[in-house]
Every structure is written in C-alpha cells, then in structure tokens.
Amino acid sequence: MDAFQGLMSGFQVAFSLEGVLFVFIGVFVGTFIGMMPGLGPISAIAIMIPITYSMDPTVALVMMAGVYYGAIFGGSSSSILLNAPGVAGTVATAFDGYPMAQQGKAGKALAIAAIASFTGGTVSVILLMLFTPILSAVAVSFGPAEYFALMFLGLTAISSLSDGSTIKAFISATLGFIVVTIGIDSQTGTSRFTFGNPNLLEGIDFLVIALGLFALAEVSTLVLNRKDNSMSDNKEIGSLRLSKEDVKEMSGPMTRQSFLGFLIGVLPGAGATIASFIAYITEKKLAKKPEEFGKGSIKGLAAPETANNAATGGAFVPLLSLGIPGSGTTAVLLGAFLVLGVQPGPLLIQDRPEVFWGIIASMYIGNIFLLILNLPLIPYIARVLRIPRPLLISLVIIFSLIGVYAISLNTFDLYMLVAFGIIGFLMRMFSFPAAPFILAFILGGMMEQAFRQTLTISNGSLAIFMDKPIALTLIIVSLLTILFPMFTGRKKFNTKNDAGKPL
Fold it and tell me: What pTM value is reported for the model?
C-alpha cells in the first residue's frame, strides 16, 4: 500500500460518521480541558484512557489525537486571557498575548492564536504525511551531543527575553538553573538541595513554577493596583477582525515557524515547549521592531502559537514510526496505544495501516474542527475578562491551587506555589524578567543530562563535540547568535561616540 492509497484508507476511517463524531469530541474535550490551568494535554489524555477501553482502537486513537492538539490550543486561551499558562508549550504565547488582552484586543489575540494554530497544525500534518520515514531516521541520528547543542542554542534566547537589563535576565536564568537541580540526581541517585525534606526529592514541578511566577504574580499585581482605574480597560474584548496589515504581518512568522516547529517536534524530548521558545526568539531577532515584542506584538503571538501546534504534529513522527515518545504527552499517548493493543513502531504502517493513516487523516479534519469550533466561540471565551476583578482573582487562585494539588495530591506543593508567587511578584517589582527563569528551568535539566551523557560516552573529553557535525554546527550558530549582537552593539556605541567628538 503506497502513501496515497494509505491516506485514502485513512480518510475512509476519519470521514466515517463514527470517526467525525469522535474527532469532534476529542477536539472539544481537549480544548475545554486545556483552558483550565493545571489540566494540560497529559491530564486530558490520561482522563480519556479509561473511556476508550471498549472502543475500536482506531477510533479511540483518532479521538486521543484530537484531545492532544485541542488541549494545546486550549492552553493558549488561559495564557492570553489570564496570563496563566497551564501548559509549558503556551508560556511564550503569554508574552505578547496577555499584553494584547490588557490593551482591549483579547478578541484579536484569540483570533490570531486560532489562525496560527490552524496553519501550524495543517502544515505539520502535510509534512507528517510526506516525510515521516525520512525524518524518523533524522530523529535517531540525534544523540546526547546533538541534544546538548540544541539546548545550548535555545539558551541563547535569554538575552532576547529581557526587556531591559541583560544582567537581570542572566540572574533570572541562573535562579532557574538552581531550581531545576533540586531533587534526586537521576544519574548518581544523590539528593541535591533538598535540605533533608522528602517533599523535594522529586524536584519541583513545572506547573508550580509557571503558575506561581505568572498567574499568582499577576494576581498580586492586580490586588496591589486594585484602585488603579486604568487597569479596568482590559475588560474590552475588541474586534475579532484582522486587517490586511495584520494578516501580512502574521504570514511570515506562520510560514517559517510551521516548518521549524515541525522539525523541532520531530526530535524526541524537544517538543512544543522548545519549539515555541525558539520560534519567539527567532522572530524577535528577525523583526525590524524587536522592541515591540513583549508589548502586544502580532508576530510575537503568531510565532509561538504556530510553532507549538506544528510541533504536536512533529511529535507523532518518532511515536508512530519508531515507537519513541517525543514528549511527556506522547509518552502518555504511547501508553494509550499499548492499552488498546496497538504497538507503534516501524511495523505499524505495515501491520495496522488503518491506524497509522487514520490518525494522520483525522488531523486534517481535527484542525478544521478546531478552527470552526473556536472562531465563533471567541466572543464567549473572551468574556472571561468581563468577570468582575475580585471574582476573577478568586477564580485564578482557585484554579491554580486545584491544578497544582491535582498533580501530586501533596499540600507541600501548594506552599511552593505561594512561595513562587511571592518570588514572581518580587521579580516584577524589581524588573527581573520571569521568562529566562522558565526557559532555564525547562532546558536546564535536559541540558545537564545530555551533557553528562555526552561526557560519559567520550570518557570526559569535550573533543566529542568537534567530531559531531550537527552538534558542531549548532554550537557555532549559538556562539554567532551571542557574539554578533555584542559586536554590532559595540560598533554602534563606538560610532555614536565618534559622532559626538568635536572635529
């Protein structure tokens, strides 16, 4: 069976009444659950697994895929409206989405997110269909050295994520690196920075930090400025219509980040989070007006939204073709495959073509459902901003507490949430950006593991990076990314000084 015949058989499954119905249910449930801080795609898929026990495996997996990309899109709504990213992949969405909502453009921000998500998702499905066998070989060629170099490239974004002082951005990132080392060292079994507290042995969950630094810090600011009437302007939803200039501004980031997000999603362990951060940083570096980023930039919102949805399609490449989960969510999805008696891997396309192509075909329909479902609902979703401020603050606090407690059922995590809320508030007061903290926390653990694995393979020699062409290229690009702005900045400084000197 060639690819075209396979896709046609997949469309037969996806376009059956049962297939369409369960794709719709998956997208709807995923979007709804994704909107709630703390209940991301992992929770959504885990909740749905028991429901699928008695279902046909193909239909069940098609619905699970719908839950996955529906939850990723749903997470962007809470990021834009409440600055409460419940999913790591939508943290970068909040950087420009929330300022747009505060400026009374919540409707436009949600419309941009919906269109960018649809574009990224659709392009990734086409690439998934065409290049799965080839890209699975690329994914396998990435070893620890290449992963370390990729993470290093991601860290070059730290200076780009600062609005003012680069020093403060690096201090913030250093704190993120320190926090990620808390817990048991997975390689040696040594406990690090736990101070004898057993609650810290497993480290600190991402959600605790994200909701503390962003949601609770925002709530604290709202409480502190409760008498400031200027902040009540954010209740305006604004028009959903995008002008020609808006569409033109979005088109470049959406085109570039659809491909980049998909390629990053293909790499096991990278996923939507890294894709969204790299997309944001790339567009900020390419932009003619980078100073607009972080203040409601259309490009700053469209880029991460496109990339995180494109990465969800890319994450299916190693899962379907190799049986390797590319992210935490696809790891849970792999469990769902096994529960339903389907073994993903090189033989899946041969043994169960209806499952392989059914999932791919359902993604076309799912992305259309996502767009049709969400665009008309934007005015209703955005009305969350019209909730009276005291009630909204209470709801954000309650959802944050429930979301964190639901992960571990441990009250200690609630104390940690409050602690990071205070840290986030203090960082805001003294103009320390929170984004480098989150970026360092997300990349730090993976980077350390990859670096130690690389040194173990090479018996402690750093020369291994010179022998790996992909790793060497990524490190050179990273160094150029760091050094080039420093060189151009110094050149501008010298030119300015020369111009000021008397002749």
Answer: 0.69
